[in-house]
Specification:
2 copies of one chain form a homodimer.
Chain A: H1 6-10, H2 20-28, E1 32-35, H3 47-54, H4 70-81, E2 92-95, H5 97-109, E3 115-120, H6 124-133, E4 136-141, H7 153-159, E5 164-170, H8 182-195, E6 198-202, E7 228-233, E8 246-249, H9 253-265, H10 271-280, H11 285-308, E9 322-326, H12 332-341, E10 348-351, E11 353-354, E12 368-372, H13 377-393
Parallel strand pairs in A: 1-10, 3-4, 3-5, 5-6, 6-7
Antiparallel strand pairs in A: 2-8, 7-8, 9-12, 11-12
GO molecular function, one term (chains A, B): pyridoxal phosphate binding
Pfam families (chains A, B): Aminotran_1_2
Keywords (chains A, B): Aminotransferase, Pyridoxal phosphate, Transferase
Chain lengths: 401, 401
Amino acid sequence: MPEISVRGLEMPQSPIRKLAPLANDAKKRGIKVYHLNIGQPDLPTPQCGLDALKNIDRSILEYSPSQGFQSYREKLIPYYKKFNINITPDDIIITTGGSEAVLFAFMACLNPGDEIIVPEPAYANYMAFAISAGAKIRTIATSIEEGFALPRVEQFEKLINEKTRAIMICNPNNPTGYLYTRREMNQIRDLVRKYDLYLFSDEVYREYIYTGSPYISVLNLEGLEDNAVLIDSVSKRYSECGIRVGALITRNPEIRQAVMKFCQARLSPPLLGQIVAEASLDAPEEYYRDVYDEYVERRKTLIDGLNRIPGVYSPIPMGAFYTVAKLPVDDSEKFCRWCLADFNYEGETVMMAPASGFYTTPGAGKNQVRIAYVLKKEDLQRALVVLKKALEQYPGRVDDE
Amino acid sequence: MPEISVRGLEMPQSPIRKLAPLANDAKKRGIKVYHLNIGQPDLPTPQCGLDALKNIDRSILEYSPSQGFQSYREKLIPYYKKFNINITPDDIIITTGGSEAVLFAFMACLNPGDEIIVPEPAYANYMAFAISAGAKIRTIATSIEEGFALPRVEQFEKLINEKTRAIMICNPNNPTGYLYTRREMNQIRDLVRKYDLYLFSDEVYREYIYTGSPYISVLNLEGLEDNAVLIDSVSKRYSECGIRVGALITRNPEIRQAVMKFCQARLSPPLLGQIVAEASLDAPEEYYRDVYDEYVERRKTLIDGLNRIPGVYSPIPMGAFYTVAKLPVDDSEKFCRWCLADFNYEGETVMMAPASGFYTTPGAGKNQVRIAYVLKKEDLQRALVVLKKALEQYPGRVDDE
């Protein structure tokens, strides 16, 4: 047979999804699996979004415009305005999930061999999209001990060379829950201007910020009109991961023009998802508040619970609905596999994402896992009990001195 | 600002969609536009598919599996069996439209610089996906005079070199409506085996074959288990272009394994679209028959009508719902633009896709257009009247000697 492409071989498996076959096997054996691995909220989609589905009155499910429906793009304007993001419908390109927005941003802006600086741990699929585009991720380390704060500007500058073309951040951060401070955002802004880089910012978790600190969008950084690209998605804010509706937003018309060619090639973003997403913008304030309050509660439950398990440490995430926690194990991937394949406590086990997949530095994050707090409080509490038992029984337990 | 990527600059604009702004302007001026440019059928989606939408009883629109729902993949087995394609659910990967299936096939199988041989005229977006993957399309010319039949094997072999990694066909063909014969398919099979190439075959129009000739899927060619990749989509067979559900099917597990990594990176195909597509498999035989009969009628109307306009020539397409026709004009893109910007007949005009966008050979197809017969008979008849008038008035008219 002909050979698989180098890119096809190099593409990482998703650290979030690669253990899914083991989880399926466990379920077949009758074991209940608590899914702490994936950012799939169990909270309901807004009723207005679900109603819009039932009320679709079309006899043909036809293509939508490559850029997305005009009506939807117009309706997004007041939504962004609530976050002081002032844009026009023309600035918005609707994509098939935030995933496609990242891929198209990389495709349109980066040449093969170009480098993107990304603070690690980072959302693993950025690596995958970089490989798809032939670009190279250079990670800048952040540490659990420092709560994943951004390193000083000198650390960035050490990585910058003639191939450096972009910085990519996720804010609030997946997987760490870190929220960039005003000082950090200004530091990034200055770097981007100084070296004339692109700045891609994935801000899909803006609804979930738990401290008094402000959320600073890249679209609010002065002087970055030509450099900043916002990546967005409705997946997390409306519990609509399955409808595959995201957005790429930039004030730079040249980027939009290039991205639109990739959009035309894939014809259109999902019609049905756009209808649901557009209707979901009518969700009442209570919807946002209830969801927010729920996450506040879950965050407290999870983080308190984790830090009470001997040998476990989690910083307190400031946003999103993930945390990266340190476990007393030799290798978190081995541990996660063991939990699914060889362990259960009273017929139950936990599935987590090994954090090594969120790092590119070899060996980094080897005793860390990403945990999503997307399950209801009782399930989280029970999952914590199961995790505690698993850590007690795991043969590869390693305690710090 | 930083530079747009070379790929972003090289990406072609869609010949099908790039004139859309002119069409929108015409509509704003109150002109009715007959859309002959795009393969968006006006026939209804199956009622069972629409009903499934109304009956969705989920409170969370969550991710679906990266490979697509197991239930849907299982239900596809008897569908393919009707066409003598015998596969298992594991062989199928559900994609976000046929577009994503092409992109992922290229990404997983082709290295930057690799060459793919494609008979031209070809579906324009293959070029776009090849550029996305850094691969190079080498086209082999077919001609309107010979009804777009495949050239002899020697013509293919002239193009084959150490960079050649794949052949891509579309059967029945978009844009020409050509259906590959048994002899041609065997010729391609022998080439693929001799040079150990991948064979990608886009067969989304298999329902629409108007001659007694058999449809031969690549999955039915012997000895190509490791080489053949079928690209599919429900867009055309169920008038469901907007739901973005396609498939990549191959018996080669290594290809599937590589493709699945790209699938995991984009998380999942559209949930809602899969629900509709799965339900649409229950469409009664009458649905398929009615749609088929309608296209037979439209094909006759269009092709007869075209060939009756002085100076126009169209071969008789054997499948799909397009034809590539020769017009008595200096430059079909100029003509198509003129139809939208500067012409109307009794308040109406036509939009067609300039065929040059379906060729890579410079100058090829310059007096050709792709016409989709996706409008109802009366509209097609009226569009033919308008086209005839346009050709009479067009300042760039050029008649053959």
